[in-house]
Amino acid sequence: MNTLVKQTLTASILSTMLAGTAFAAPSETPPAFIKKVADGLITRLKADQSKLQNNPAAVKAIVRQNLDPYIDSQAFTRIVMGTYATNQNSTAAQRAQFEKNFRETLIENYGSAFAKYSNQSYTMRPFKSTNPTNPVVTIDFINNGEKIPVSFQLADKGSQWKIRNINVSGIDLGLQFRNQFAATVKRNGGNLDKSIANFKPDAEAAVEKKK
User: Quick one: signal sequence residues (predicted)?
Assistant: First the structure.
């Protein structure tokens, strides 16, 4: 095969790959995506309900398998680190370590919340598409007759949606976690490595603080 033919084939393959990437889009609508995630999680919680109360490891495993794959941890990390997410204020290694730690503590947060699950249900609010790149889908979890609105801000990742931020009862968790991280940095005298190692986002405290 001569050089010209090789170059032509290579160019053709690359353009096909790039075109496929450029025009890739989530196959599901935002509400269908959130319904799939919620239904999958609730189905597992119902199936294993008797095992959850005194078994945090089991709850974390359910959250890890049924929620973690749909979280855009990079976007969530940028929101929470705030100004510390820039190249001027942190290294790539520090951001990677923060994302790893943050993802794990999110699982612990959600695991603690779902450990209290007692067969609650949910309803989906009508969806309004005002931002095609970062649409927001809101569902109302119903717990003992009380509706708890939870809004999921999504990110278009090309082949599927991912959750980049969560709002509970009007509380922006990304913003509240950012405030918590800034406070952690302050307590540690500006030492970013120490702050990343010690940071524990607390969703319950964030929501309670705003009540």
Answer: 1-24
